[in-house]
Amino acid sequence: MKIPVFVGGVHITLLPESLPKAFDFGVYGEGEETIIDIINYLHSGGISGSSEMEKINGLLLHTDDGIKLTEMRTPIQNLDVIPFPDRNLLNIPIGQTTYMFTSRGCPYKCAFCASTRVWDNIRWFSAEYVVNEIKEVIEKHKPWAISFYDDLFIANFKRLEKIVELICTKGLHKKVKFSFACRSNLVNERLIEVLKPLNIHMVCMGLESGCQRILTYLKGGGITVEQNQRAVGLFSKAKINIQGTFIIGSPDETEEEIIQTLNFIKRSSLTNFEVYLLTPLPGTPIWDEAKKMRLVANNMDWGKLAVENKEDKIILSQLPKKQLLELYKLFMHEKRKRKVRYIVKTGMKNPFWVFKKLKLIKNRLKLNDKIKNIFAKK
User: Which of 109, 154, 258, 264 is the most buried (most CB within 10 A)?
Assistant: First the structure.
């Protein structure tokens, strides 16, 4: 029996010509309606990857002349018509963190991000839909926290107010913690006031750089280092945990400018932070820049773009790779120190939190062992 194998997502949507022969076909753009058509076609006896599938919108098909795109599928305008995901298939252990998407798209155009290249505009699930999904997740899976994976959860302020109001009215903030992404130019006293009633575990902000020149390059303007500092300070004053993300290795970024970012972190009251080497992901302006430099291609080894890959990673920086990695290690050292301080500080206030944290780690290790065993048997 031949099992149909296909792929979807950002990469294949923005770089359809890179669809490997290992896949019968690909799904580009929004997939909910496309997958229904695919299942109905296969269920009726259709052959996976055949030319008969050209009638289905939103597909990439292998042909003798290369990759063929069928007609683009119109995005779903009313996202509330989409049923809640069946999370039973994920086998989420009780007490773990799970996630939700409550919107599609982003109002900003960062140079390293492909979101606005995938979605022409931003669409929202309604506040009522979002809160009903939160309620179902809590009742069925009893997570410790829910992370909103939206590009920018707070972008629609009126909807945000309604979501918080409904969460508190239903008492859901007493049953689970929340984390989500934010942007410093949108942070003010009014936002903090709206968010304060929530049981917030962490707010994440893409701060990117402590150097204004590099920040402008990465964010496309419209945001300053001072705004980043002020936003971190407002969240810290409100006793809301804040995580910052940073990117080093822009094409002409100097060692001194990278150190400016490290010093920004050291001076800040960030609870935690992550730092990444600038990666030319398909569909982004950074990808186009890397292509001009002949560092990437449509048929390249994609493992060289993996986040965890450091030694063999494609970089755009003019600094020697060894020097860049040494600078990266300085950030990792600072991160470890900050994490230890956070654990000690939180553990002193709430020893039970440490117990729960250890239990979460134990459950995650058990889950990893189960996954390894499944693949080992195959």
Answer: 258
The secondary structure of the chain, three-state, reads CCCCCEEECHHHHHCHHHCCCCCCEEECCCCHHHHHHHHHHHHCCCCCCCHHHHHCCCEEEEECCEEEECCCCCCCCCHHHCCCCCHHHHCCCCCCEEEECCEECCCCCCCCCCHHHHCCCCEECCHHHHHHHHHHHHHHHCCCEEEECCCCCCCCHHHHHHHHHHHHHCCHHHCCEEEEEECHHHCCHHHHHHHCCCCEEEEEEEEECCCHHHHHHHHCCCCCHHHHHHHHHHHHHCCCCEEEEEEECCCCCCHHHHHHHHHHHHHCCCCEEEEEECCCCCCCHHHHHHHHCCCCCCCCCHHHHCCCCCCCCCCCCCCCHHHHHHHHHHHHHHHHHHHHHHHHHHHHHCHHHHHHHHHHHHHHHHHHHHHHHHHHHC
Cα gap 105→206, rounded to integer Å: 16
Residues in the chain with pLDDT values less than 70: 1, 344-378
Q: What is the pLDDT of residues 274-290, one digit of tens each?
A: 999 999 999 999 999 99
What are the backbone angles phi and psi of residue 311, rounded to the nearest 5°?
Answer: -65, -40
Q: What is the pLDDT of residues 175-186, one digit of tens each?
A: 999 999 999 999
Given the DSSP bridges, would you call strands 200-208 and 177-182 parallel, antiparallel or unpaired? parallel
Which pLDDT score is estimated for 162? 98
Domain residue spans in the chain? 6-69, 79-350
**pLDDT tens digits for range 323-372:** 999 999 999 999 998 887 777 666 656 666 566 666 666 665 665 555 55
One-letter amino acid of 336: R
For 327-363, letters b (16+ CB in 10 Å) and e give bbeebeeebeebeeeeeeeeeeeeeeeeeeeeebeee
